[in-house]
Amino acid sequence: GDQEAGEMGLAAVPGRQAAFREGLAAAVQYAKAVGCPRIHLMAGRVPLGTDRAAVAGKMETTFIENLRYAADLLAQEDMIGLVEPINNRITDPRYFLNTPHQAAAMLEKVGRPNLKLQLDLFHCQIMDGNLSRNLETYFPLIGHIQIAQVPGRHEPNSPGELNFPYIFELLESLGYTGYVGCEYAPKGDTLEGLGWLRSYWESRGLQHGGTSKAAE
Question: Which residues form the Xylose isomerase-like TIM barrel domain (predicted)?
Answer without folding.
Answer: 9-199
